[in-house]
Amino acid sequence: MRKKIVAGNWKCNTNLQEGIELAKAVDTLVAKEAADDVVVVLGVPFTHLSKVVESVNTNRIGVSAQNCAAEAKGAFTGEVSAEMVKSTGAEYVILGHSERREYYGETSETLNKKLALALKNGLTPIYCCGESLEVREAEAQNEFVKKQLEETIFNLPESDFRKLVIAYEPIWAIGTGKTASSEQAQEIHAFIRSTIAAKFGDEVAEETSILYGGSCKPSNAKELFANKDVDGGLIGGAALKAEDFLGIINGF
Ligand code: PGA
User: Fold this and answer.
1) Burial class for 154, CB neighbours closer than 10 Å (0-12, 13-18, 19+)
2) CATH number of 4-249, picked from 3.40.30.10, 3.40.50.1100, 3.20.20.70, 1.10.1160.10
3) How confident is the model at residue 179 (pLDDT cuts 50, 70, 90)?
4) Among 11, 34, 172, 197, which residue has the least CB neighbours within 10 Å?
5) pTM above 0.90, yes or no
6) Is residue 106 over pLDDT 90?
7) What is the DSSP string of 178-234?
8) What is the mean pLDDT of residues 59-66?
């Protein structure tokens, strides 16, 4: 059975003290009110990783970085390596978020290096894909997403591919308040699963968790998560309030 996962992506929000407070609030609510079969992950800024690891029950909540360096180590001022992330106690890393691709010029080539280093260091990559509004309006989203997968995670050996979580995030729905409809989400998630099946076989496709991201909130999580190919969410804005994040987790 593939996992149900709700992962928060705090992006560049919260100072350290606010982040610890938020993590503790999520920890308390999850312990009391969340279903045990939903994996909960907090994607926090690098500066917060080790403190958040100390602040939550890591048997219940996984901690994630939002990026890692494309190089293992060395003279790369300002970069944070996959090994450094792992050494904080974090277990996940978000890779290929559209904001990284768009604002920091992250290419498939860079992503392949990051994926390899994350996997080598025992981190679970949460690999993001998704199309712009322009691509959606041209009804070219399937080809676009397929190409993203083919250029990156489809290069991995099957044993590594099995370790990934995929997040489909239409760029036009991120932070815009505009959510993909439940039908749109199911349709493209089913398409992604079918391309995984064509590449790695049905069993691998059935075991891969595919999360939806883009203005997911307590009020629409239930409908989105009810779809057979939507296995949870990658949550931006609504992950910054513990009660809203819990409301999304309880959308299952
Ligand atoms: P959002 O962000 O929930 O604020 O739309 C999602 C994401 O970018 O991961």
Assistant:
1) middle
2) 3.20.20.70
3) confident
4) 197
5) yes
6) yes
7) -PPPHHHHHHHHHHHHHHHHHHH-HHHHHH--EEEESS--HHHHHHHHTSTT--EEE
8) 98
Pairing mode of beta strands 210-213, 232-235 = parallel
Task: Specify the length of the chain in residues.
Answer: 252
Q: What is the pLDDT of residue 177?
A: 83
- 32 pLDDT higher than 90: yes
> Is the C-beta atom of 169 inside 6 A of ligand 1?
yes
Cβ contacts of residue 193 below 8 Å, gap of 6+?
205, 206, 208, 210, 229
Question: Active-site residue 48, yes or no?
Answer: no
Query: Is 169 part of the annotated catalytic residue set?
Result: yes
Q: Which atom of ligand 1 is nearest to the CA of 235?
A: 3
State residue 58's pLDDT score: 97
